[in-house]
Write a structure and sequence with these properties.
Length: about 110
């Protein structure tokens, strides 16, 4: 049976605004279990570089029922930090037979 790993997701919470009115965020780590980490294809690497100017490191599959915001956040796994980008792709729960229904791309960060 397929089983994912536990990743640390840094949830952003707005704590105020700076002198220019831009929002200031604080990041709180949360554990998310059963996340699949996949290797990108060569086509994913090329298109990601052309579309976003970013080099994709992995693709994460998010378990069904997860309510966290995965857009433009820091995640940590394999002892390294990564940053999500490009938005979350979501499928219809009832049409997907496995435990994961969302995908997000990550790049190496920090």
């Amino acid at each position: 049976m397929i089983h994912g790993i536990t990743v640390r997701l840094y949830v952003k919470t707005q704590t105020g605004t700076d002198d220019f009115g831009a929002p200031v965020f604080d990041e709180t780590p949360k554990e998310v279990c059963n996340v699949l980490v996949g290797e990108p294809t060569s086509e994913d690497i090329v298109s990601s570089l052309q579309l976003y100017g970013k080099r994709i490191a992995y693709t994460l599959a998010i378990p069904k029922g997860d309510e966290h915001d995965w857009e433009d956040v820091t995640v940590e796994f394999f002892g390294q930090k990564f940053r999500t980008y490009g938005g979350v792709t979501q499928g219809i729960d009832t049409l997907i037979p496995l435990c994961w229904n969302k995908k997000v791309k990550v790049e190496r960060y920090g």
